[in-house]
Amino acid sequence: MWFTDKSKMPTAETALPGREAAMQISGVHFVSGHRIAAPLPAGLSEAVFGLGCFWGAERVFWQLPGVYSTAVGYAGGFTPNPTYEEVCSGQTGHTEVVRVYFDPAVISYQDLLAVFWRSHNPTEGMRQGNDQGTQYRSAIYTLDAGQQAAAEASMAQAQQRLSDAGFGAITTEIKPLADFYYAEEYHQQYLAKNPDGYCGIRGLQCLI
Questions:
Q1: Active-site choice (53, 88, 199, 206)
Q2: Which domains, and CATH codes, for the chain?
Q3: For residues 40-62, average pLDDT
């Protein structure tokens, strides 16, 4: 039976079992035509962020100069190769994330962190606006020690500004990336394919 309280994280023991087969995707960005999966050009760096519904979150990043491509998927949970329906059930532990491949000579990881903080409210816990559940939690999944340190430093700075503005504690999960699972093809660059689709991104640009 699936959880009724989607704001509670499952454990590794209670999470859905998932499957061995990875999600089949085209591997091509609908907007730019660039690759969103290997093989990729040399010299790119990677970042992974969760800031609510990944449809609107992905569009925030693909529009940035220096971003080569973006893809949406699932991270931070237990279930291998989950489906969207499984993630929405609250029984996988995953959050919806955007994988960003970028050229560090054009845009830095610190620049991406700045966009991350101002593009959502990182104080809401297991929700983002009207979207409620573990899959909407704020998260930064790091690829190395340098990213981990940069993410933690940027959170401290963001917390100071938010506290000064009367907001509560940041609830963003910051930890090394264990696994990234691509979401289904129809989710990739969803708002380019569906211009009138739901976005759900409520930024705090004036504060952070």
A1: 53
A2: 45-193 (3.30.1060.10)
A3: 97
